[in-house]
Description:
This protein is an alpha+beta fold. It has 4 domains: 81-170 and 237-271, no CATH class; 176-229 and 278-318, Phosphorylase Kinase, domain 1 (2-Layer Sandwich); 324-535, no CATH class; 547-676, no CATH class. The protein is 56% helix and 9% strand. Strands 4, 5, 6, 7 and 9 form a 5-stranded antiparallel beta sheet that branches. It has a 4-stranded mixed beta sheet with strand order 8-13-12-10. A 3-stranded antiparallel beta sheet has the order 2-1-3, with no helix packed on it. Mean pLDDT is 77; it is low at 1-55 and 684-691. InterPro entries: ABC1_dom, Kinase-like_dom_sf, Prot_kinase_dom, UbiB_kinase. This is Protein kinase domain-containing protein. It comes from Corchorus capsularis (Jute).
Amino acid sequence: MSLVLSAGGYSSCLPAGRGFSIPKSKGSKLCTRAALVEARPPRVNNGSLAVQVYGADRADDLQAEAKALSRAANASVYNPELIARKYGSRPVQVVRRTLEILVGLGSFALKLLLDEKNGTLDRNKRQRAIELRKIFTRLGPTFVKLGQGLSTRPDICPPEYLEELAELQDALPTFPDEEAFSCIEKELGMPLDSIYSSISPSPIAAASLGQVYKAQLKYSGQTVAVKVQRPGIEEAIGLDFYLIRNLGFFINKYVDIITSDVVALVDEFARRVYQELNYVQEGQNARKFKMLYADKEDILVPDIYWNYTSGKVLTMEWVEGVKLSEQAAIERQGLKVLDLVNTGIQCSLRQLLEYGYFHADPHPGNLLATPEGKLAFLDFGMMSETPEEARFAIIGHVVHLVNRDYEAMARDYYALDFLTPDVDVSPIVPALRNFFDDALNYTVSELNFKTLVDGLGAVLYQYPFNVPAYYALILRSLTVLEGLALYADPNFKVLAASYPYFAKRLLTDPNPYLRDALIELLFKDGKFRWNRLENLLVQGSKDRDFSAKDALQPVLKLLLGPDGEELRTLVIKEAVRVTEAVVLGAVNDTYNSVPSFMRTLMFNANGSGPLAMSATELESMIELRDQVFRIWGLLRSSENFDPTILQPILQVLQQPEARSLGGRVVGGITQRLAARLLQQVLRMPTTSTSS
């Protein structure tokens, strides 16, 4: 086996040896930090390396993590006061950077105006897109992140801009390998040749805050990704956030149309970016994310190697895959982009609404499709959390949207922390009604997420709303996923893909807030809406985690609880209706199955049949019965169906209050059927079927 040493234009074939083999020459200082690339991979057993060493001993793993934390003890944190003092005393540097930004973006805006005036706007799109990418790259990490966000929005940017800005995800300019290798040795306190048996001679990807090398650990042979932070990155982003924060103060004071606290939003974003600068924190984020979400077989999260991680160096498991935006490459592997996007949406919903801990930077460079069809999440520097109360309020908000209950929607903004309790929401209700009555001409699932965001934004601007920072990151996360889906299908609707998750949560979650939301969805004006229940079951069954065993348990608990008397009254009424529909439907089916000459003999040539009711009433009963049977069929068709889901009802019937409930149901059914029988005997005109 031979090794190829290559760095800075120097290359030499070396014999295979133990560890790094460095030639003694005047360029040896450079060579000690060069990359050793093996001509062929090491032999493995059954296609896998001996990676069980990592994580085999939990105590060792915790000890390694503790050492990594000590190496990152001096990592910077975002402190706007310190940044203000630092750059407030450097007016020349501030003015120079301000002019640099104004010249870069101003010249681009001027060219667009000239293109529009000369009628060459469309013809010059590609050229202008390239120029914008170069401007963002030149302006540094803050603007690179802005370009990354725009690269996932085909509904905002033309295709030419999307293609060019997509290069900002992992095709940025690199910094010298010599600096990267020096950083690794300094941060980890070990020579390069004692850590890796090989490392790529140049970065395989460059991101806004660092660049990544592919390497092989010497102690285990495991292939890893080594991320090294860009030198001087703190200085660059610190100055940009100082300028942007001052702009936020100006907007808060003079721009009335924006009611949100812009400075708070800037501070939240800056805090997240500074967290990205601490790679030990990123490693801990990855571990937590893996624990919460990698329990699903189609989600992959790489492991972290703490012995080789510090504040500026991160070593993690290598993941083979294709960026989610590369549709052709994904399809060549026999995979479907929309399947992977749906996996991402379901995982994102769990992040946002189940555990509240979510990946706040899911651009295509951080989402990979593996050859096995898994969706791999990378880059855990920017994470955020949804408050618990807000998680349930968001689901309830969807219920209120479906019900067009705009008064309840307006009250949701208290729980979402959009409004303070002293704000009167009654003036907001007409604005919500005007927007959603128009938007809901189609079903909720057909709405585009961006349409909702834009429409709500127009409402928010008119009233004293304060959009919390976590919500802004949620919007960014979901709009990125919708943007990825739009690459594959321009008609994709993220709400349609999300609805099965909402339906499953409503049917199975015992949280009191969601339990009340389910009751609110299923009952209206004292009547049970069977079509809503059927739709929830149809949608909920599309979620792979849906279980009939858990469905409706929240309703049963509320029904049998001390506060469920009002619901019990409604259920008794509905049970009587359903039983009557089943019995009379069976009678009607039996009648229709009898030969016509037998009917004449049995019913004395009475053309109205065996039931004294109108055709419309009979049709309504048959429809109710069939709907109940369909719902039962949906429950039975569930993969985890178990007849014992009805056991709680039987158990409750043994309790005194439950026996009273059962007696009321039986009494109501008996009374109803007796009245029907009397009508039939006397052939009296039917009365209203309401109890």
